[in-house]
Specification:
Elements: H1 8-25, H2 36-44, E1 49-53, E2 61-64, H3 66-72, H4 76-79, H5 93-106, E3 108-117, E4 123-135, E5 141-148, E6 150-153
Antiparallel strand pairs: 1-2, 1-5, 3-4, 4-5, 4-6
Protein name: MEKHLA domain-containing protein
Organism: Nitrosomonas ureae
Pfam families: MEKHLA (PF08670)
């Protein structure tokens, strides 16, 4: 089976994700040397978590690198069909919505902290996450991304 990060649509999405991260934070998320395919592979195999969702009314996850797939205990197919809100337990969804709205208004937020839940019910605390708006080069908003490398299981 072909790796998901080799799909041309995923390669394009990775570029929007990476370019938008630089736009808002003025920092590179990772080394951007090499081809677009090389960058997509590097992002997918990074040790830190990267996940994103689209701009739908009830956003669906549309990208998760291997670290994200492992953390949420899903394969690519499951992950990219999951409403983003389901990454948080019901009591934490309102706070999550407020955080995403704040990022939407400001462009990005850093040092986010919140509790998330995997597909198997494992709860974990995310620390020092950055959430940012993803847009096309023309400025069209197309989603939001999140990255973090600091989490701990709670159960």
């Amino acid at each position: 089976m072909q790796a998901h990060w080799t799909n041309p649509n995923v390669i394009n999405w990775c570029q929007y994700l990476l370019d938008s991260y630089v736009h808002w934070t003025k920092l590179e998320l990772m080394d951007r040397s090499g081809t677009l395919l090389t960058q997509a592979e590097r992002l997918f195999n990074s040790a830190f978590v990267v996940a994103s969702h689209g701009a739908e009314a009830d956003p669906i996850l549309n990208y998760g690198n291997q670290a994200a797939l492992n953390l949420w205990a899903m394969d690519w197919q499951q992950f990219t069909q999951t409403p983003s809100r389901l990454t948080a337990e019901s009591p934490n969804r309102e706070e999550r919505t407020r955080m995403l709205q704040q990022a939407k208004i400001q462009g990005y937020i850093s040092n986010y902290r919140g509790i998330r839940i995997s597909s198997t019910g494992k709860r974990f605390l995310v620390n020092q996450a950055t959430i940012w708006n993803i847009h096309k080069p023309d400025g069209t908003a197309i989603g939001q991304g999140a990255t973090f490398s600091n989490w701990k299981y709670l159960d």
